What we know:
The complex is a heterodimer. By secondary structure, chain A is mainly α.
Amino acid sequence: MKTNSTSAPIPTQQVKHELRRDVTVWGSFMWGYADVGADIYVALGLVMAYAQGAASLVFAIAGSIYIMIGFAYTELSSAYPVAGGGPYFTLRGLGDFWGFVGGSALLLDYTIDIALFAVGSAGYINFFMPYVIGRTPESFVISIGPLHGINPIWCLESLIIIGILIMVNIRGIKESSVLNSFLGAVDLMAESSVIIFGFLFAWKPEMLASQWKTQFPSMHNFMYGSSLAIISFVGLESISQAAQETKRPASIIPRTSLTLIFTVFIFAVSFSTLGLGVLPWQNFAARMGDPVAMLAHTIPYIGLIAGPLAAILGATILFISSNSGVMSASRLTFSLSQFGIISPWFHAVHPKYHTPVRTIVIFSMIGVIQTILSFLTPSAMDTLGNMYAFGASLGYILVFIALIKLRFSDPYTPRPYKVPLNVNIKYKGRKTSFPILGVIGMLGVGTILFEVVLTHTIGRIAGPSWIILCFMYYVWYRKRDGYPVFGSIKHDWEAEQIEVLTSAEEYDLLEQYKLALAERDKKRKEIK
Amino acid sequence: MRKVKYQPPGADYKISIKDYYQILSSALFLIIGTTILVRSLQNSIVVMALLMGGGFLALGAYRLRFVVKYFRERRKCSPR
Lengths: 528, 80
């Protein structure tokens, strides 16, 4: 596909860079942790249901791929500290069309994010249902004609949560970084306590061994489980969002994101290994709504408190994650509209509250539709996770390709952090480091996407359908405004990069960048 | 190109509550790692259990290395 630039008029809205804050390493870490750390609360039951006795292996495999994705995001976010995240890197590396594809994949994920985490949050609230009304959530399950296993109460709770989020976001209540930090810290300590006490007092290695040997899943279930496991690591966009709003991101972001990546990885693998050594996988499959609370409740000594605490934390942190889906959809549409990928119509603000009301309502309503439809299937969480994996894996593949491409097309931008394992090669007379790990990561995510297409009956239809729907809009919008569909609008990336580094107060990087550009211009003059 | 490299804190650095938490969790990683390894080897050997135990042990040891380094540095600088 050609991505050559044309000289069509640049969209009228110019890129604006907000004021940055002094966010500490800890604050920045907690920002990401509140987002990515929540995923295990949803993924544990879901993955256990399919990966069965091999759940911990599946988490380890998906986690290894996620670590490589994390490396790529760390490099790109510290080099290009803007909130656009994956689609911005793709747009910059591969052009407008692929930026649009990455953007629409991520937008799909944000709408599912709203739905899935709202359903998850309601699931953890339901932990208390037997103690409050004396009935389990499963007792409300009904059948409507050919549709079985419908839980109207759980669905209603999820819709109420989304409704609250819509109202809160339209009124413009800001996500508090203090609240995020507090909740993240409490969650970190609670999860650590469950793991420590669990491994010391409840974990039975013979049970893990027995499940590993006798309950190993079929190939189909293994593939399905490993592609679902990737959802326990989704939310890396928060790294670039943190990078956009942090002063001196080059020194903060690499430390923050590497710590975040490994912490989340350790928790995911530990919880699954602990879970399989404490309870049969069938217990987790039966309690997809609140698996972490159920596990915490069975730990000796602390279980009585840890169970309800994990349920409260799960409900709260998933509520915040669902909210981040609403907020991130607004941020993404704003970023895409700035680069002429979608119309600025989406970003019209509310006359009274000055919030992006159209984006909030449109994408939250898509989340509402997804929630209702998912509850008409045998397992709402499974259906939503099914679609989530498609968007995530497609977006991540494009990020890897952009990472490799940008090493060649933009070698002048200083990279405070580089993905490990590089080989130096000569390209156009200039020494360029080629990221081997980028290729391995791309193949890894490619395998996940292949598994999604092969095993996810809903994801393989709904995912591409969403992209096609967005593409139809993209063609209409680009043709209407006179922009090329497959080509790119001319962007002045160098001026943009100078502005970004200036606003980030990365003056030494700015100097290096200007020096590299000057050297390049000098060489070009000499050749002429 | 500016490299972001970890700089161990100097001897005059004051240990905060967060640092104490990290030291404690690192020590616990060592204990958990050892427990997992020993119990797995005593019972049935599963690859994932060995990886988990080994991982915790290595991570705990790696993190405690910095703590030991810091205390050594502090002892060197402190007046006798």
